Amino acid sequence: MNRARLLIFNAALGPLDYRVPDGMQVEPGSVVVAPLGPRQIVGIVWEEDRLPTQSVPDAKLRPLLAVLPVPPLKAELRRLLEWTADYYCASLASVARMVLSSGGALRGPATTIEYRLSGGMPERLTPQRLAAIDALDGEQATIRELSGMAGVSEGVLRGLVNQGVLEPVEVDCDRPYPPVDPAFAEPELSPDQRDVADRFVGAVKQCQFAPFLLDGVTGSGKTETYFEAIAQNLRHGHQTLVLLPEIALTEAFLRRFEDRFGAPPIVWHSSLKSTERRRAWRAIAAGTAQVVVGARSALFLPYAKLGLVVVDEAHEVSFKQDDGVRYNARDVAVMRARFENIPVILASATPALESLQMAQTGIYEKLVLPARFGGAELPSIDTINLIEEKPDRGRWLSPRLVEALKDRLEKGEQSLLFLNRRGYAPLTLCRHCGFRFQCPNCSAWLVEHRLSRRLACHHCGHETVPPDACPECGEPDCLVACGPGVERIAHEVEEILPEARLAIVTSDTLNSPEKAAQFIAQAEAGEIDVIVGTQLVTKGFHFPELTLVGVVDADLGLEGGDLRAAERTYQQVAQVAGRAGRGAKPGEVFIQTRHPEASVIAALAAGDRDAFYEAETEARRHAGAPPFGRWAAIIVSSEDEAEAREAANRIGATRPNFDDVMILGPAPAPLSMLRGRYRYRLLLNARRSAEVQQVIRDWLGALSFPQGVRVAVDIDPYSF
Ligand code: ADP
Ligand code: ZN
């Protein structure tokens, strides 16, 4: 008899065996529908010997119901999923779910019905109907999406359909994408760029695993060189995946890509509309999607013939996913390339120490672009000691930085102020009784957002309107803002330079592709004099008229004391500095700090990258930190504080004894409460060679916990 073992998306129940009915064709990787109790579930057929479970006698097996009309997941992808689950101590089910994340993409016909406004008005205009009409605003969406967008029930929308206010449009999910052309507009490369590009092209031609670290200063034209690799890959008829750290960067990338290749690539990220998501998924699986640019989740899509992976801004922290499956997309990208046996390019001006180490030990091939394209100089960098050059009372910009801003405004050049803090002020308190506004769900202060008039938690999204009186002592008009956020810096610039045209650039203000595109267009057209922004402005942007960069508080990132604080500060400041002087005019950078002597700041001011990396390497070696040793975290959480503590203590009490693994804790996690859950943490520090994952699996596998307790494992954690 023919049996099939299914990976199903409920790790607690699966895997499960089924009977394959006569005449049904399945193979490992087939996506199938199976009965489970009274329900139908989707599962992936897997090799039995790779997915052990208790065997069920033949007579008890239920038959599979159907094979879904999508290509079976390839062995290369199945091996990647297994590796990811294994390495990050996650269930294979939760990793595999990311492949089919488009859910509905698999079932039903290849068309979707969306709705658009017909132009007619409803018989009676209720607030809900108005909300639906407003939300659609010239676009089209499915009923379910529109219900979410407008915050109204599907019933209200059906009413509008019946009245003819919304009209159906049939959307073909298999309509082709415009083809991209490798020869559309080939650039003249500089000799340095040519060398790098030739190396990439050679690797793509060889079509085997080849990891590259493209280490090029900001503005050196790294993109241009990996575009040549993409062109070669297109000529082979293979697919390319480009991972970008931030959706806000995608706009600029799309335009450049289209200039070079004559058509845009296919975009993949979590906020795609379901129809577009479905269309992309199907084209990727069918092999017709030529180039996909996406956020980290694009890594787990079922490419039919992947030939090249590029990770741009590969040092970025946002490649690390911090909930669900806690994976690092940069590292999984390299593994994907290894299983697919294809080249992978990690591009950065400030590579992670781990990546540099991989290059040093010869595992990655390092290619260097030492100079900016077109002869632009790297900017000059100067520190401003805030203890000596004090800003005015209640201000955050020192006199020298203010002078430089004025000077740029007079010359008609652009300036950029960087502060990695959204909102107006990170803390609000009552000047009468000292009451501080705290998030009810997290151990964090509420951040004042003055533009949108709210107090918000940056961890869970909780929001309230600032009250007129203190909720504690009742004193009216007593709230004071403590510390600066970007809105407050923008406010200060307004006061100093009332005529300057300002843009605040954060994930709050650039929260859609349209807004990102609009900002870029305005900045390029010279309609903005001063940009004030968070880490979002440190990357990717290329504004030739931008000649001044001010880092408002370089010490901010160093305070937390976490493992990567120094490296992250170095990367952020070097990246934001790299926005200055990219055109014909030279750039100038001021770093405001209270610790000009700190090794990170000194290295930045001296433009001595090697000095920073050497100091950082020594510090990491000394601490047994990556890349010399390994870290892992076990995070125990529950809505009940005692329950979380007890579970953490029990894990602590059963700790295994190993020479090469040191176990610290349990202790309250740095965010001891998050989204209403109390959190405790254990930290493992291990030698490079230790089998940390095996240790953790054996250890936790022997324990069981109450329902409300969650135990998460974070391998190679970023922040703790
Ligand atoms: P990086 O990503 O290394 O910071 P970019 O790829 O953004 O640098 O390149 C910086 C600028 O130089 C961009 O505007 C890009 O279009 C331009 N540029 C780079 N290489 C070339 C080239 N070979 N021909 C024309 N323009 C180039
Ligand atoms: Zn919160």
In short:
The protein is α/β, with parallel strands linked by helices.
SS content category: alpha/beta
Question: What is the residue-mean pLDDT, rounded to a whole number?
Answer: 91
Summarize the biggest pleated sheet. 7 strands, parallel
* Order of neighbouring strands in the sheet with most strands: 10-11-9-12-13-8-14
DSSP strand (E) fraction? 15-25%
Number of helices: 19
Bound molecules: adenosine-5'-diphosphate, zinc ion
Number of strands: 29
Give the overall silhouette. globular
Which residues sit in consecutive blocks of at least 5 with pLDDT less than 50? none
As a percent range, the share of helical residues equals 25-40%
Distance between the termini: 52 Å
Give the radius of gyration: 27 Å
Describe the protein:
The structure is a single chain. With 720 residues, the chain is of the alpha/beta class. It contains 19 helices and 29 strands. The strands form 7 sheets. The chain has a 7-stranded parallel β-sheet with strand order 10-11-9-12-13-8-14, with helices on both faces. Strands 15-25-24-16-23-22 form a 6-stranded parallel β-sheet, with helices on both faces. Helix 14 links the parallel strand 22 (502-505) and strand 23 (530-533). The longest helix is centred in the first third of the chain and has 16 residues, at 191-206. It is globular, with a radius of gyration of 27 Å. Zinc ion binds next to loops. Its cofactor is Zn(2+).
